[in-house]
Design a protein that fits this description.
binds zinc ion, single chain, alpha+beta, 3 strands, three-stranded antiparallel β-sheet, 46% helix
Amino acid sequence: MPIYEYECRHCGYRFEYLVLAKSPAAACPSCHKKNLKQLISLFQASSETTRKANFNSARKKAVAVQKDKAHEEHKELHDHFDH
Ligand SMILES: [Zn+2]
């Protein structure tokens, strides 16, 4: 189950998308356009030891983005300032 990272060419919003066999084509959570640029896959960028952790984290994030984008953005804002 690969996770792809996309950048929306329409509004510049970046998000990760878990691609399942039955998943619809990825669309921007922000503007709902499908004009996306695919970035480096998390699987390719991760080592074997961190792969699972990154996958779980990214999967939660992707689901959260799809469910509630505003909440996720708020959380990311906190992440930046907390570290
Ligand atoms: Zn967009």
